[in-house]
Amino acid sequence: MAFSMLSNTANRTPMKNIYKKINRTKYSLGELISIVGSCARNSRETIAAMVDLLESGRVVIRKNGRARRVRVQHAS
């Protein structure tokens, strides 16, 4: 059972630089997108990672010092 799980993950290419440390805690939105994009394989993966970060609350957007909740709407 464990062997089949390992063989399935071996066929997939993981995101680049998955263990890259980010030391600063405050980034502009453009810097954050650039950092996430440098670790992703393509633009779709970048968008998916950004949506996940924003929807999970791991990234906080601030405007005039106040935290803002970001909601991502999916186009139909």
Description:
By secondary structure, this protein is mainly α. The chain has 3 helices and 2 strands, in the order αααββ. The protein has helices spanning 2-11, 29-39, 43-56, and strands spanning 61-63, 66-68. It has a two-stranded antiparallel ribbon. A hairpin with a 2-residue loop joins β1 (61-63) and β2.
Which H/E pattern describes the elements?
HHHEE
Distance between the termini: 39 Å
How large a portion of the residues is in β-strands, by DSSP E? 5-15%
Low-confidence stretches: 1-8
Percent helix, as a range, is 40-55%
- Assign the structural class, choosing from mainly alpha, mainly beta, alpha/beta, alpha+beta, or little secondary structure: mainly alpha
- Indicate the multimeric state: single chain
Major beta sheet, specifics?
A: 2 strands, antiparallel
Q: Structurally, how many domains make up the residues?
A: 1
What gyration radius follows from the Cα positions, in whole Å?
16 Å
What is the 3D form?
Answer: globular
**Spatial order of the strands forming the largest sheet:** 1-2
